[in-house]
Amino acid sequence: MKTIEIRNGEKKIYDICLDNSYGHLREKLEELGVSGRKVCIVTDSQVAPLYLKEIANMCCGLASKVTHFVFEAGEASKNLTVIEKIYEKLIIEKFDRKDYIIALGGGVTGDMAGYAAATYLRGIDFIQLPTTLLSQVDSSIGGKTGVDFQQYKNMVGAFHQPALVYMNLNTLKTLDDRQVCAGMAEVIKHGLIKNRDYYEWIKAHAAMILERDYDTLEHMIYESCLIKGGVVERDPKEQGERALLNFGHTVGHSVEKLKDFEWLHGECVSLGMVAAAAISMHKGLISQEVCQNIKEALKAFHLPIRVDGLNPEDILAATKSDKKMDGGKVKFILLESPGNAFIDREVADNEILEGIGACL
Ligand code: NAD
Cα of 230 to ligand 1 centre, how many Å? Predict the structure, then answer.
């Protein structure tokens, strides 16, 4: 098992554990003090038949009560109505402040279970057991929790750090190819914003990654967790550097909304990165070759670099209503070079339209 500690100065906040099974989970739960506490495992309808029993059995004999809440898989469930149902479950089962929620699943489960944990009784502890590539490399780390509200993506939420992130990398074996590729968008993002060598390594290992070679995946997920973990450790509440993780998400979120969530989050981030790279090129920061290289990297993982049927003005309007606005200006993450991103608050509408034009 490999472990990364997320710290706040001297104090450890939580461990991120990468394992090839759930073999060490029970001892980690004991270390946390789950013994004698109640546990509610929140998961979705697709993950429940695969892993719920194993996790519930592991908690039995340790926790004083083990219960679960299963919701319909998919982004459409990430809303306040489902959160209310989780509260109801916790109230009926008499959960108190010292009890635990375990999020077992992808980013939708983690965001939602985390938000329920952040708000129930003003905050109870929660544990992330991420089972998609996207959630293992990105969403389970850093304590951003929340739900979509009406057509607005992640509009309601809270920062609430997990007590533990524990991933069994072999859960990726049951994930379909499209979901693995969507997760690769966030992996490529990590290389592009922070580490050029890692970006080059990802491109060079595309075949091994797509074959899901265990050692290659383990190395990649570890590197991505180090990057994401490092950023959120230095800037837990997105006062500065953490915004870099939004590379590709500004236009990406707009496409996600306008496509009515038919496209996966990672697929929309892929398009958003094409747009952000094009804006960086129009500002004279990166060359056309670098832009092309980024598109090739995304294509290697079957990620979309174009979208049909959307109007550029609609994408622009949606981008300007996104919560990543800062003092009335869109906060864009651009590239100075692969491995080196920065926040730009001075991107004009015509430049955004140029970027959008690159993926239409
Ligand atoms: P998801 O949770 O919907 O999972 C994708 C699908 O895979 C679901 O149908 C799920 O049931 C299924 N699944 C999960 N694990 C499986 C497994 N091991 N085997 C078979 N099927 C499995 O989506 P996601 O891509 O994991 O996450 C996307 C969400 O994450 C979005 O809502 C996005 O906004 C959010 N997100 C949050 C953060 C953050 O920092 N909190 C960062 C990035 C993305």
Answer: 22
